Amino acid sequence: MGIAQSGPYAAMDDDPDDYRPGSAWLPQVDPDGRTSMAVIRERIGVGDRIPRHWHDVDEVVLYESVNTGDVPVEVRAVYPATVVRMDLVERNPAPGTQDEPPRATRYDLTTGEFDVLGETTLPSSPDRAGPARSAVRTGSDPIGPRCWRTTCSEAHGRALHRQPTTP
Fold this sequence. Notes:
The chain is mainly beta. It has one domain (10-160). It has 1 helix and 11 strands. It has one helix at residues 154-160, and strands at 10-12, 20-29, 38-44, 53-55, 60-63, 73-79, 83-88, 103-108, 114-119, 134-137, 146-147. Strands 9-8-7-4-10-11 form a 6-stranded antiparallel sheet, with no helix packed on it. The chain starts with 9 loop residues before the first strand and ends in a 7-residue tail after the last helix. 23% of the residues are buried.
């Protein structure tokens, strides 16, 4: 069992591919290294969104609320690894980088370092297992994602694909 203490959230303004200065995140791992799991806690700012992407490992996304107004959305993502590859399919480009293609990066959630691996590599088919084990497509609503692959678990489908209800 690993225990990770809460810490300060950092602004998401240093990644030219996922530039969201109105959002903040806190990667967490067991500081003693007893587990090989990681959690990302994220506060998605109003009007911000997670760009469509895929990971090389499974991802479980938990959210506290739906962004329906003027408050950030609280999201948690759990990974069975502390080093996670992320291939962006879409970008939230930093100013001056709008013409650059989506890139693949590898995040070491223990050290906070990330390496740019090059341009995104897409699976040959969204229905094929390929290199992608987890992929999320988000629209304009940051917590209204649509699964990019058809291998979403039933629980993921219920939690993330539900449509807003009208009173």
